[in-house]
């Protein structure tokens, strides 16, 4: 077992009275557990992302975004901080060449694009786009809330989910200037609130989880004559027929081998796992089961697909499970770990010695 790949997990949290917003854990893949490794000083880390070259980690903070170098042992070394000229973001991601960083603004309905430098530091703002318009109801949907920003895998278009406006806007990226121009709009059901998006490994399939309708929409994606085309091929529920009322879907994560998709449901306090048909991209639900915590804001399979962690935002815990995909069961795996208001988790494979 000495040649087994080693991983760390980065967990982002809100900071109330304790300004350590990122916690680093050593990951025991075989036993499906975390061990505390380090804590990083940062305020209100609402979301994390790792660059595609796996060298840098970027985090939302109250003051904009912060960049870190990922050291060989998984520790983080601060590089710099950059402002986003707006309210605190809720999601961030890089393009596939790691030349630009995109930040989603839930509070102000804004997309911010920033240039990334070769040393991983965050440079100047290259574009700012405010979503405008009125949604369908006058509570949360009365104005734009950009909840997720993600590039298509061909690196041509930035997809921005707006859960206030019930659509995903698709922007063409100018790789020289970092400017974004609207190319398409993927319209979701009214009052469905698209929250997070993921693409299949080959980039042909787009998955969109909808917070208020508790559904995942599946689309095919291709580029024709220099324009993006999306076609819906499936809608599948994230909850059981007998789920709790006022349930809200939150997480959306692919397994490391892209064989499975995970989502979670606040209110229902459950996690749902789907098998992905590798030919068609269609989803088959394997189970939807309780996570022994409140508001599972994020949930992720371990790299072995045999274990799962749920980040329970309201009960301030992480709960761990052994997963049996073939029988559709999960079994509690050891005690919960206390962590205040966790937001997201990322597994990172360490470079082998």
Global shape: globular
Give the tally of β-strands.
29
* Percent helix range: under 10%
Tell me the distance between the termini: 15 Å
User: How much strand?
Assistant: over 45%
Radius of gyration: 19 Å
- Average pLDDT score: 94
Catalogue the unreliable spans: none
The biggest sheet, with number of strands, parallel, antiparallel or mixed sense and barrel status, is: 5 strands, antiparallel
Order of helices and strands: EEEEEEEEEEEEEEEEEEEEEEEEEEEEE
Number of helices: 0
SS-based structural class?
mainly beta
What would you note in describing this structure?
This protein is an all-beta fold. The chain has no helices and 29 strands. The protein has strands at 7-13, 22-28, 33-40, 48-50, 56-61, 64-70, 76-82, 91-94, 100-105, 110-116, 122-130, 146-151, 157-162, 167-173, 180-187, 194-199, 205-210, 215-224, 227-237, 248-254, 260-266, 270-276, 283-290, 296-301, 307-312, 317-324, 329-332, 337-338, 342-349. The strands form seven sheets. Strands 24, 25, 26, 27 and 28 form a five-stranded antiparallel sheet that branches. Strands 3-2-1-29 form a four-stranded antiparallel sheet, with no helix packed on it.
Based on the model shown, name its key terms.
mainly beta, 353 residues, 0% helix
Give a short summary of the structure.
The protein is globular, with a radius of gyration of 19 Å. 0% of the residues lie in helices and 55% in strands. With 353 residues, it is mostly beta strands.
SSE map:
Blueprint: E1 7-13, E2 22-28, E3 33-40, E4 48-50, E5 56-61, E6 64-70, E7 76-82, E8 91-94, E9 100-105, E10 110-116, E11 122-130, E12 146-151, E13 157-162, E14 167-173, E15 180-187, E16 194-199, E17 205-210, E18 215-224, E19 227-237, E20 248-254, E21 260-266, E22 270-276, E23 283-290, E24 296-301, E25 307-312, E26 317-324, E27 329-332, E28 337-338, E29 342-349
Antiparallel strand pairs: 1-2, 1-29, 2-3, 4-5, 5-6, 6-7, 8-9, 9-10, 10-11, 12-13, 13-14, 14-15, 16-17, 17-18, 18-19, 20-21, 21-22, 22-23, 24-25, 25-26, 26-27, 26-28
């Amino acid at each position: 077992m000495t040649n087994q790949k080693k991983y760390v997990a980065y967990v982002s949290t809100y900071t109330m009275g304790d300004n350590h917003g990122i916690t680093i854990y050593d990951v025991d893949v075989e036993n499906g557990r975390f061990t505390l490794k380090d804590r990083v000083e940062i305020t209100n880390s609402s979301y994390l992302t790792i660059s595609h070259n796996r060298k840098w980690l970027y985090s939302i903070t109250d003051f904009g975004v912060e960049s870190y170098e990922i050291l060989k042992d998984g520790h983080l070394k601060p590089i710099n901080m950059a402002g986003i000229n707006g309210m605190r973001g809720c999601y961030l991601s890089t393009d596939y060449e790691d030349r630009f960083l995109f930040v989603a603004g839930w509070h102000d309905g804004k997309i911010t694009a920033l240039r990334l430098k070769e040393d991983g530091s965050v440079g100047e703002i290259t574009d700012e786009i405010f979503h405008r318009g009125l949604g369908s109801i006058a509570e949360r949907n009365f104005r734009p809330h950009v909840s997720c920003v993600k590039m298509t895998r061909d690196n041509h278009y930035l997809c921005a989910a707006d859960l206030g406006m019930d659509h995903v806007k698709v922007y063409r990226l100018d790789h020289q200037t970092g400017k974004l121009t609207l190319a398409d709009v993927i319209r979701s059901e009214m009052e469905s609130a698209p929250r997070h998006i993921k693409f299949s490994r080959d980039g042909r399939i787009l998955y969109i989880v909808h917070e208020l309708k508790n559904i995942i929409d599946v689309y095919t994606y291709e580029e024709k004559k220099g324009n993006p085309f999306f076609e819906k091929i499936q809608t599948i529920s994230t909850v059981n027929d007998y789920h709790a009322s006022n349930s809200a879907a939150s997480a959306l994560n692919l397994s490391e081998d892209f064989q499975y998709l995970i989502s979670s449901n606040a209110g229902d306090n459950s996690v749902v796992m789907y098998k992905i048909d590798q030919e068609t991209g269609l989803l088959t639900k394997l189970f939807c089961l309780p996570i022994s915590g409140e508001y599972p804001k994020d949930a992720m399979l371990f790299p072995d697909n045999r274990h799962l962690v749920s980040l329970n935002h309201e009960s301030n815990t992480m709960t761990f499970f052994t997963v049996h995909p073939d029988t559709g069961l999960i079994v509690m795996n050891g005690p919960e770990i206390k962590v205040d208001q966790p937001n997201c988790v990322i597994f990172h494979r360490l470079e082998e010695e």
